[in-house]
Each structure stands twice: as C-alpha cells, then as structure tokens.
Amino acid sequence: MAISSMTGFARVQVRVPLDNDEQLSYTLTVKSVNHRFLDLQFRLPSGLDAVEVELRRVLKDKLIRGHVDLVLALERNAQAKAGYNRELIAGYLAAFDAARGEHGLKCEPDLNAALRLPGALQADDRKDDDLAALAASVQEQVVPLVKQLKTMRAREGEALEAILNGTLDRLAAATASVAELRPEIEQRYQDRLAQRLASAVGPEFNQQRVLEEVALLVERSDISEELARMGAHIEHFRELLAAGGEAGKKLDFLLQEMNREANTLLSKTGGVSGKGMRITELGLAMKAEIEKAREQVQNVE
Known about the structure:
single chain; alpha+beta
C-alpha cells in the first residue's frame, strides 16, 4: 500500500434522459489539495440539497485528508425558457408605488433595476421528476468519480514517495559520513582537553575546574546518540512510506525530530578545526534535505 497525495482532479460528463424527450447534461467535477483535515466544499444547483448528504457521506468514507471541492454544473440540451419571479417583482412594484405616494414623487419604476434583484430572473422550474432523475444519476456517478480522484492521488503519491526516498538516501549517506569522521573529532577534543588540563594544573591547581572542563568537553564531543537516533528515524520513515495509508502527520513529526538531531549535531561539533568543518557542511546539508522533505510531506495524505 503506497502513500497518497492530497492533490488530485477528476471529472465526468453525463447525459440524463428525461420524460419530455429532453436530455439533461451535467458535469460533475471534484478536485483536492492539501489540508490538515478533510474539508469538503460543494457547489450544487438549487433543489439538490438532499443529494449533498449522500455526496458528503461517500467522500468522508473514501477520503482521509484534503480540501475537496465538488462542483455540479447543469446544461440542458433544449433551450430553457426564460422567466421571472412574479412574486418578487410584484412586491418590488408595490413597494415602489407605496414609497412614491408617501413621498409625493413623480417617477416610474426601473424594470432593469428590478430584474437585477437576486432571484428575479430564473429559468423555467425543473420538475420534481427531473430533479429525481438528476439526483439518482449524480449518486450513481460519485463513487466512480471519487475512485478516479483516488487513482490520480495515488499516482501523485508514487512520485512523492520516490522524491522522499531520494531524500532519505542522501540523509543516510550524510549520517554515515559523519560517523566516519567521528573518531577524528573525538581525538581533537581530547587534544583540546589535554591543553586545558595542562594550563589548569599549575601553581593554582583547581580540581573542580578540571572536572567541569572534562564533563563539558566529553558531553560536547559525543555525537553517537544523535547519529543513532538519526539512523532510527530514517528507517522508521522508510517503514511509514512502505506501509502507506494516513502517514502524512507521522512523517512530518519524524522530520521535526530529524531536524532536532541535526541541530544538536551541529552545536556539538561547532568550532572544531580540520574535519570538524566537514561535519558542519554535512549537518547543514542534512537540514536542507529535511526542509525539502517537509515541503513534500505537507501534501501526503
């Protein structure tokens, strides 16, 4: 089971035969982008509110995360007759006459202004049978439509997985390189420790100062735990990629932990000459790879 992207698009165009020998054509479109949770948005023609409940149920059942827009666009093959909302226009004219008489005005109502009122113009009403046929068709099409969307999201997920595996390979290589340089870094710390001990052991020998210096340098020089944890995080990351499913949030958390290990590694090896500069370069390269991976992971379901 591979990971899935939250980016996808699917569309289906359907013709529904009606009882009056007309055909009702519609386009059902669904697209998704990344989101922390499952955010569903619908744009449906009036009269199909009940259908939204079924559409929402299907999408929640099939998808885990993502901002999803579903749009239903209608187009009749037969020419729709234009009409107007008689009740609305009559109310407008009555209010106009009342205001004109109350204030003693001499003017005529503007029909263009009246027809621009929301809901004033409307096509001929769809019959209940037409709406029922449309609703049944949409409910029939939504499952294969979501399947088409998930197929595209899976393809995008495969591409993301390849990118992330490449990042893991580079992180693993950098970790191995740091591990190879570790003995030399430890030796340089030991040399610095010997110099400090030599300067401390003098006429004013201070045992407490020596112990503090030793403890500080030993702690700073040991990066074995950071390397071990980085390696463990990389392996866990690969396991999550292979397992697939809802992995996006877990992968993002792992990358935060990897970034923390890279920061600690840099702080412990900073200021060491020689091969220490190489470790700094490797640590910065790790952080760059981790940041790139975090950008990609934001789109993993």
